[in-house]
Amino acid sequence: MAEIVGLIASIGAITSAGFKTARAISTIASDLGAVGAEISGIATDLKAISLILNELKKRLSKADNITVEVSNLVVETQLTKTALLDAKRLDTTFRFEEETSRTPSTQIEDGQAISENSEVDGTIALRSSMYNEEKMHLARPHPRTGSAILLETMSDDDFIKISEHLRLQKVVRELALKVIHHTSRQEPQAASLDDAAENYTNNWHGSHEAYPFLSSRAQLKEKLANTKKELIQSLERIELLDKLVETYKIESSTREENDRQSQEEICLSIRNEMEEELRRRMSDIHMVRKETKEEIEDARLAAGREAIRQFQAGRENLDHSS
Question: Highest taxon of the source (predicted)?
């Protein structure tokens, strides 16, 4: 039972991880380009597997209740075995009384003769009281505590033995009741009762369908085996998806790093171009300023020379006129 509970918890954890992985893949599938469609298909399959595992978890939870039923059947089997032993004990006692009652005798007790009929009456009363006591013992409720501990330590062979006891349960009960109710029969009748019990036992070997416990256990084992296979396949697919997600993360990180480096290179190139353009323009401005300054200086010198020439010409004119 502890293994089933652990298996149910494992299935729940794997189902939750599968749903989370499917959601994560659905979120990042749009960024994968051509691989996104295939990854989306894998996410869909993973969701389907998660749903199947969730359904298996529910069925295993229901199957866990079978252990309680098995524990009850174990207790009933033990009670049946006890009833069979008590019936055999009563049968031995009653046969001994029958053998004793076959020989007629007269006993003297307290000076009075006691016939065989009184002994037979006492035997009948004894049988009646023992039969009533046996009915009370069979009808008495028994506690069922500790059955869960028994199931946890029970092996497969014990389960098979329990199933055999369960198949024999009805036959054993009928046999016990027949032994209790028909203890006054002769030995040939007792032999026929033993033959009937043997026939019941032989018929039991062919009544496998009457108690489908083994088949149910086989089906449960098969379901557990299939569940383990599906869990292994799911784990493999989850590992594959984890690898794909890890690869995508690495590629995404590499792509982001490359983009960042490209952006830095572009920014550096633009900055260099701007600085070069600025230096070129500053050089042009410097050259223009230098040329302008030279032109202004040339113009000033030319204007000074022209003014001196005009002054000298005016002076010469004044000299000639005087």
Answer: Eukaryota
